[in-house]
Design a protein that fits this description.
Length: about 190
């Protein structure tokens, strides 16, 4: 009679199930498409911002409205920083030949988790500098025309709306990061 080293292991073997590698590959491919689609939309939105704020900056220079030009240029620079950061932090990483599908999927989840969790720093931060810097320059411009009261009267609603939008985007990205953290924990539980 052969005695198994640990009887609990023998009992668990009867109903053990292995994860299908094809299922993991399918999940990894779907996640890859999601990342690439999101980044294409972000790059397109960034390009649109660069074009529009670049045109504003050029138009400001042409009309000798240098505060408008400075505000537009600031937004262009900040948008460029965001797009560069998106590429550096949130782009899809190709699988390494030596890593399994499961390891690759986990590393992708971790990479995207880190990117989403830190959105307030690398995404919203530069955008806030650009947009709120632009608002500040507009307040200065409008103060020269109609006084500080009129300038604040005309800008407080957009500033509050933009602040609320930034808070919502930060919350939404943290929420998405938590969902990815759950997936990471599920993978870690398999190992």
């Amino acid at each position: 009679m052969t005695q198994l080293p640990i009887p609990e292991w023998a009992a668990a073997v009867a109903d053990a199930e292995f994860t299908d590698p094809a299922l993991i590959q399918k999940r990894a491919s779907k996640f890859e498409r999601t990342i690439k689609r999101r980044n294409i939309l972000e790059y397109a939105a960034g390009a649109l911002c660069v074009v529009l704020f670049g045109a504003l900056a050029i138009g400001g220079v042409m009309k000798s409205e240098y505060l408008f030009a400075a505000g537009g240029a600031l937004c262009v620079v900040c948008t460029g920083i965001v797009i560069w950061q998106l590429h550096a932090r949130g782009s899809y990483r190709l699988p390494l030949p030596e890593e399994s599908c499961l390891d690759h999927l986990r590393s992708q989840y971790q990479r995207q988790y880190d990117a989403l969790h830190s959105v307030p720093v690398w995404y919203l931060g530069p955008l806030a500098v650009g947009v709120f810097g632009f608002y500040a320059l507009m307040i200065v411009q409008f103060t020269q025309i109609g006084g500080l009261g009129k300038a604040l009267e005309g800008t407080w609603k957009p500033i509050v709306a933009t602040t609320a939008f930034f808070i919502f985007v930060g919350w939404l990205n943290r929420f998405a990061a938590r969902k990815l953290k759950d997936k990471i924990d599920q993978i870690d539980a398999l190992v």
